[in-house]
Amino acid sequence: MYLKSTKITFIAVLIAMLCASHASATTYYVSDSIGSDSYNGKADSFNGTDGPWKTIQNGDVKSLLQPGDIVLVAAGTYSQPNQYGCVLGYCSGTSSAPITYRAQGRVLIDQSAKPLASMGMLVYVNYVVIDGFEITGCQYGIYMAQYEHDGTVMNCVIHDTHSEDPLAPQT
């Protein structure tokens, strides 16, 4: 009888730990129009203490994101600082709790003004979901780096890309 109750207690504790790990996931917000990367990202508009980030990659760059977190990106056009686009290189999810970047409405990453060998997003991390983004004007829409694995791209539109090889000899 004691062994049976110990097994049940162990299973109950294990289930509680699993639920707690998923319950601790945080939703962050990004808004190009009203955000600031000095805000904490924990609200979709500034309320005196919490507010959205300005850049999609802010939580990753500052290593704030944990497995299971969701980054909701408000509709708008997000300019990128260089030809590498939105670089995700620090925070990975897990197989059971990926980090999700989800567009809310039309989220456009426009790299038209960047060099030919540009990217909309450059992903170096594992277990991420990229959902609902529109990317234009680059050679590589969403570039998953060589050793990145188990990333998911869904509901994205990539158009008006450059097909020229910038390394090809010019005639």
Characterize the structure shown.
There is one protein chain. This protein has 171 residues and is α/β, with parallel strands linked by helices. It has helices spanning 2-23, 58-61, and strands spanning 27-30, 70-77, 86-88, 99-110, 119-123, 128-136, 140-144, 152-154, 157-159. Strands 1, 2, 4, 6, 8 and 9 form a six-stranded parallel sheet that branches. Strands 3-5-7 form a three-stranded parallel sheet, with no helix packed on it. It is globular. The chain starts with a helix and ends in a 12-residue tail after the last strand. 32% of the residues are buried.
Condensed summary:
The protein has 171 residues and is an alpha/beta fold.
List keywords for this structure.
171 residues; alpha/beta; 6-stranded parallel β-sheet; globular
The average pLDDT is 87
Q: Which residues form runs of ≥5 with pLDDT under 50?
A: 12-21
Q: Rg to the nearest angstrom?
A: 19 Å
The largest pleated sheet is described as:
6 strands, parallel
The tally of strands reads 9
CA-CA gap between termini: 84 Å
| Beta fraction | 25-35%
Structural class: alpha/beta
Separate helix tally: 2
SSE blueprint and pairings:
Blueprint: H1 2-23, E1 27-30, H2 58-61, E2 70-77, E3 86-88, E4 99-110, E5 119-123, E6 128-136, E7 140-144, E8 152-154, E9 157-159
Parallel strand pairs: 1-2, 2-4, 3-5, 4-6, 5-7, 6-8, 6-9
